[in-house]
Amino acid sequence: LAVVAFCAASSAMYIVNDWHDRARDRLHPVKRQRPIASGAIGRRAAGVTATALFALALTISVGLSWSFAACIVAYLALTTSYTYSLKNYAGIDVVAIASGFLLRAMGGALAVNVPMSSWLFLCTFLLALFLGFGKRRHELLLFNGAGGLHRDALSGYSRRQLDWAVVLTAIASVIAYSIYTLVTNSAATDNALVLTVPFVALAIGRYMVLVFRCGLGGAPEMLLLKDRPLKLSILAWGVATLIMLNLP
Predict the structure, then answer these.
(1) pTM value?
(2) Where exactly are the structural domains of the chain?
(3) Which CATH architecture is the domain 1-116 placed in?
């Protein structure tokens, strides 16, 4: 139910964001095909759908716990602020996106009543920053210096800045995950989980190749689905993690 609540909340906010950005999305070679930007879905349908999803998310979250409901409300407040203001400021826009992923992770921890490790918290934040800066880099290159026409924040970035941001957050993500494998409770008596670090480094390294050499990164979710080396490295990490956590 927690997953359904966050899916409903995020879907509602995507609708609100797409409606708000519909004019600029029509300038984007891919986003122009979205239902709202293309005109396939009108204002009434978008409004009714978003309202229903908001109601569903809040109803489920209150039924689970007040703390989880507070997390959902915080997520909605953050994403609303992002849509109408924060997305216009370079740096702040990516931090806001990363914070949204943090709230999702926190919501998951609250739903299963398990405390979230501070290092896992940091890993989530850094990885989200890494993906976010990669996406901004792709957009900057896509519009060839005229990114401000599509997104105000892009006028505050340079390619060099984003290159460094991607590299530094990639390194920080691997370091943070490495420390997490050493300090997590499951590794208190056995540091076997550290053996999964190479797979994380491999996945992040592969993603960097796609960003820097292939000019991709605009749709991280599509890369995760379509790039075979990336999928295999993530699968290997998942299998290795399960094995290490279940060692006698």
Answers:
(1) 0.85
(2) 1-116, 130-248
(3) Orthogonal Bundle (1.10)
